[in-house]
Amino acid sequence: MPRLNLPPTKSNLLALRRQLAFAEEGRDLLEQKRQILIYELTRRMRRAGECETRLVTAMAAAHVALRDATLAAGVQALDAAALGIRSRHAVELSQQRLMGMWLPAVEAKSAPAPAAYGVGGTCAQMDLAAQSFSRLMALVVELTELQNAVRLLAAELRKTQRRCNALSKLFIPDYRETISYIAAALEERERESFIILKMIRDRMDRATGQGIEAPPGQRAEK
Fold it and tell me: How far apart are alpha carbons 166 and 149 in whole angstroms?
C-alpha cells in the first residue's frame, strides 16, 4: 500500500495523527450526509412517481371533457369561446436549503377567471373542460419541482459518494500506512539507541571491574 514520502520524525507522526483524526471525522460527516441525501432522494422520487400518475389521470380526464365539449357545442363554438378566456395564473419561485445545497420550491397560484362567454352557443361541458385543464397547472408545477429536486439531489449524492470513496480508499489508508511506518521506524531507532547505551554501560562496568579508572564524568553518571 502506498505511503507518504515523509521523514520518520516525531513531529511528522503527531501531525499525521491529527490529520488522520480530522479526515476520519470528515468521512463520518460525509457518510451521514450521504444517508440523508439517499433518504431525501428516495422520498422525492416516490412523490414524483405519485404526482406523475395523478397528472396522467387528470390529463386523460381533461381530454375526455374536451372531447365531450367538442361533441356538444362543436369545434367553431369551442374555438370562439376559447378566444375570450383570459386566465390569471402566477408561479412563485423560491428555494429551500438542505445539507448545504439549495432545492427549488415552486408554487402555482390561479385566480378564478370571470365568465368570458355567454350562455348562447355554449354548454356545460365547456365549463367542465376549462376547469379540468386549469387544475392541471398545479400538478405540472409540483412535478416540475420534484423532478428538478431529484436531479440536484442525485448530482449532490454522486459528489458526496466520490468524496467518501476518496477519503476511505485513498487518503485515510495512505495516512495510516505512513503513521505505521514512522511509528515502527521511531521504535526501531529507540531500540537501537537503548542497545548502544547498554553496550556502553557494559564496557564501563567491565573497565571499572578490571581496575581501570573511568573518567570523572562517566563515574558521576554511573
Answer: 26
Q: Count up the domains in the chain and report the number.
A: 1
Which CATH number does the domain housing residue 22 bear? 1.10.287.3240
What are the tens digits of pLDDT across the range 173-219? Answer: 999 999 999 998 888 888 888 888 888 887 887 877 665 454 555 44
Indicate the pTM of the whole model.
Answer: 0.72
Residue pair 172/17 in contact by the 8 Å Cβ criterion: no
CA distance 56 to 175: 55
Read off the pLDDT of each residue in 153-177 and give the average, rounded to a whole number: 93
From the CB of residue 4, how many other CB atoms can be counted at a distance below 10 Å? 13
Question: Using CA atoms, how far apart are residues 89 and 111, in angstroms rounded to an integer?
Answer: 6
Q: Cell 440536484 belongs to which residue?
A: 152
Domain enclosing residue 114, as ranges: 10-172
Query: Does residue 61 form part of some domain?
Result: yes
In a domain, 79, yes or no: yes
Kindly tell me if the per-residue pLDDT of 123 is higher than 80. no
Is residue 106, in this structure, part of any structural domain at all?
A: yes
Residue 171 C-alpha cell reads as 487518503
